[in-house]
Amino acid sequence: MNLNSIRPVKGKSLIETPSSFVVFDIETTGLDSFENEIIEIGALKVKDGKVVDSFDHLIKPNHPISDFITNLTGITNEMVENAESIEEVLNQFINFIGDSILMGHNVNFDINFVYDKAEKHNNYNLTNDFIDTLRLARKLLPEMPHHRLSDLADYYNIDKTGHHRALKDVEMTLEVYNHLVEEILNQYGNLDNFKKQIYKNSYDNFSDLTPQTDKIDKNNLFYDKNIAITGNFVNFPRKEAVQKILNLGGHYNDKVTEATDYVVEGSKKSRFQKGDKSTKQLQAEKLISEGANIKILNEDEFMKIINEPSLS
């Protein structure tokens, strides 16, 4: 299912460190934004680094709150008995946030719920861009085994009293965000350097690899051939696959062109895959149909060549 067709005008996830935004959190009756309900929304409006307004509303659901959710959040059926409806609270929340950048921890969850409920009950599309402190934390603190809000609160010695109520989680998220901004400055000096590192790591960069031997068999199939890789391998990481190509005297190419001799397909799907075929495979097939002499190899065929490389 294409999520863009479900939420076609959903905002973008940003890597930024603004001083003005709305940080928010919701409590729900479950994990499914279509089947379950929002029972609380909490938010803080931050302008130039200072909290200037707050939002804290319970919502009356159409179905009873389960004991599990009550035990998790502390929100009881009695507490929401006289609360406002989802339509009323969302209308107020939409006015509260305006066109502000939104922020939250694992905020895609909250964004999706609000998007779907606002579309259903208020005939409104949530288009605000957003920042996810979970995404930032994973990039900045890779040594942590988990990056839940409670884990980060422990890491930064943030008081967790009242955790799993919306406004308290918002306050914790704001504190975590401020610490993460400090992490960016301490580790990278500025935001631009941090973003460059993220985007650098988003793409394969094998330019530092060189052959690990000076005795290359010129009779092997890959010698002096241009070879592209698509997908990931069952037998070893992509980087190791590239190293094996270089050790056989081949040339690794990031793109598929008319000069490409082989396209090697890993058994695991590429993150850029379109349907059953990757972008590189589709490009190779297009060039082949136009007369290019490109051979497409699967992982098993690739393994045979690197294990028995010689033509003689």
UniProtKB/TrEMBL annotation:
What molecular functions are annotated in GO for this chain? 3'-5' exonuclease activity; DNA binding; DNA-directed DNA polymerase activity
Instruction: State if Nuclease is listed as a keyword.
Output: yes
Q: Please name the CDD domains in this protein's record.
A: BRCT_DNA_ligase_like, DEDDh
For the BRCT domain, which residue ranges apply?
217-312
> InterPro entries per the record?
BRCT_dom, BRCT_dom_sf, DnaQ, Ribonucl_H, RNaseH-like_sf, RNaseH_sf
Tell me a GO cellular component. cytosol
Q: Which SMART domains match?
A: EXOIII
Q: Which Pfam families match?
A: BRCT (PF00533), RNase_T (PF00929)
User: What protein name is recorded for this chain?
Assistant: Exonuclease
| TM ranges | none
Q: Which is a GO BP term held by this UniProt record?
A: DNA replication proofreading
* PROSITE patterns reported in the protein's UniProt record: BRCT
Write out the entry's keywords from A to Z.
Exonuclease, Hydrolase, Nuclease
